[in-house]
Amino acid sequence: MWHNVWAVIRREYLQRVRSKWFIAATVGGPVVMACLIVVPAWLAIQGNRDEFRLAVVDGTGVLYEELAPRLENGGFEVEEVRWYADVVTELRARANDGELGGFIMVDELTLETGEAIYYSMDVPSALRQVTIQTSVARTALEYQLEQQGVDPDGLLGGGELQVEVISGAGSDVRDPQFGVAYGGAFFLYMVILLYAVAVMRATLEEKTSRIVEVIISSMKPSELMLGKIVGVCAVSLTQMAIWIGAAITLFAVAIPMMIAARPELANLENLREFAPGAGLIALFFGFFLFGFLMYSGLYAAVGAMCNTDEEAQQAQFPMIMLLVVPIVMVTSVIQAPNTPMATGLSLFPLFSPILMWARVSGGGVPPWQVALSFVLMALMVWLIAWVAGRIYKVGILMSGKRPTLPELWRWVREA
Amino acid sequence: MSDDGFALRLDGVTKRFGKHTAVEDFDFEVPRGVICGLLGPNGSGKTTSIRMIMGILGPDEGTVSLFGENPDVTRRTKVGYLPEERGVYKKMKCLELITFLGEIRGLKRAEARRRGGAWLDRLGLPEWADKKVEDLSKGMQQKIQFIGTVIHEPELLILDEPFSGLDPINQDVLEEIVRDYHAKGTTILFSTHLMDQAERLCERVCLISKAKKVLDGDLREIKAAERRGVVAVEFEGPDTWIRGPEVDHVEEADDGLHLVLRDGQDHQPILHRAVSSGARILRFDLVEPRLHEIFVRHAGDGAVGDAGMPVGTGIGRIAEPGDGAGSGSESVGRGGV
Prior knowledge:
The complex is a heterodimer.
Chain A: H1 2-17, H2 20-45, E1 53-58, H3 64-73, E2 77-81, H4 87-96, E3 102-106, H5 108-113, E4 117-120, H6 126-147, H7 152-156, H8 178-209, H9 211-216, H10 221-261, H11 278-305, H12 309-315, H13 317-335, H14 340-347, H15 352-362, H16 367-395, H17 405-414
Parallel strand pairs in A: 1-2, 1-3
Antiparallel strand pairs in A: 3-4
Helix pairs in contact in A: 1-10, 2-10, 3-6, 8-10, 8-11, 8-13, 8-15, 10-11, 11-15, 11-16, 13-15, 14-15, 16-17
Chain B: E1 6-17, E2 20-31, E3 35-39, H1 46-53, E4 61-66, H2 71-78, E5 79-82, H3 94-103, H4 109-122, H5 138-150, E6 156-160, H6 168-183, E7 187-192, H7 195-201, E8 204-209, E9 212-218, H8 219-226, E10 230-236, E11 247-253, E12 256-261, H9 268-277, E13 280-286, H10 291-299
Parallel strand pairs in B: 3-7, 3-8, 5-6, 6-7
Antiparallel strand pairs in B: 1-2, 1-4, 8-9, 10-12, 10-13, 11-12
């Protein structure tokens, strides 16, 4: 039996991995992602390095010391110029000679309102403006806080909330990672649907091209179905492994390299906050795997009972609904992850991949609930394999009109 | 079950699709090493029978055995099957497809690949090994599929309408290969509705009509047994003597007219009538009936087109339906499956 299944898996895997579509999506995905992150930042700092030579005219006498390192972090070269009567004229002249890209004037008003004046040789990019503006404002704010005897790092760092959960449930609350929860849920929806539909199309192709007759005379339908699903699954895992590998490379290698090369790109560092940890990535694969196994079984059955693409489009409607419902609810579940409704829905196996993921990655969920959802999903995989396997077995050799629900039920009973 | 000398044996096999009975109480054996034709008009149950032999359909009643064993055990490695509706993975390269088909019949991958390459050479397609199947002509795709059918050197070849869709040249190529396999001792069962082809190739035939077996056995024995039933005549002069109570119908053949007699009738009265009518008899010969005639005789009313008596003067003509059998039969389709 395994010889057959293995042959089907290998055929499916190699055919797909070698296809132009797979190569384009697998390589193209990371490239597009990298471009979306890196290119705008890169473009924003492109231009003459001279623009980054700044003079700071400090009318207060207290700001330059803190302001200079901040601006340098943002990629500027700075020099301090004491205020004197003709300083603006002089600095304009130096800028016109190409010695300076521009200069900043800070004074007592800056200390009160954060306002400053930036004389620039060119129209400054938004990134450059924001860098200067936040540097000045932050320096002024810190100065004022220090004057009050307050710890500016603690307050400006966003504070710290220590959570003590009174009842037992959800006592392992972590910092909510909303981005990961949303992004992951949509990504799960996308990949589960994408690859489950791939199983359906493959089944339909085998059925309509009639090659299934030759195959079924050499192996059991269940072996073909298993090989098909595992083959497509292997393809999907390959693709996601490449994507995630590319993302890790981007965060761990490419971004630090770029920041080292162009310090003004330091803002890219903030993206790390969105990067999920290894535990979450493992959970993600877990949810994907079970989600895929459940839905690909259902989709295989749909492919087997239909005769044309159009029919299959219609027949997959219930499955689409099962995937869309949790997506619609994902926001409210992330916001209130431990309500009875959120808990109940996320434990429903066909919703678990999306909703339990959203709860786990977004906030505190008792580990037993996660474990339970995997147990329930495993049971559902078994149930679907049993039902869908029977529909598949009958449907794959059947031509003629699509079966009605009572007919389907008879297939399941009699197969 | 033990080895009984039969490559294939069906015992009382019945298959129903809802209210429609596709195959009824079918007993059938194919001894090892023979070429056997499964003949019948479209919709008579040939494909359903073959699908049951191949385990694609399960019989409602009766049993199938291959080489005296449980078919599920022997089928995969000992049987090569070419279905009526030819399917391929269009996006695969030819050699890969052949290799895959060999693999699922129990060959090691490397071995399947080696044999596939050798076959492509033999059929003059070596340059197509790395081409995608969809780039091939239909005839070539059928060749690829045939290679996939025989790649594991099966002991029993089951070919469902193997000649349909092939041009005459490729029909000859296929016939040649079938004869080769027969010479090597392979048992071959093929279905067809073309009686002439079956007559050329088969040692044994099994005729089915309307889901039931009509006749089966050694073709030569069948013909010998049926010999009394047909008289070939050539003559000049009046033809009125042709009609008579003994004659069922008349067919035009290459060697004159064939008078097909009713069951149990003797030819002597016809000869007597001919001589007394004044016709000049050039030939009056008891011949082996053509398979088509045998089929018509046995399948009975409505199974095939009723061949009427010749009308008019001179040499009688028969309204011969296109492929002989089939046109008069009820078209039943393949039911739900």
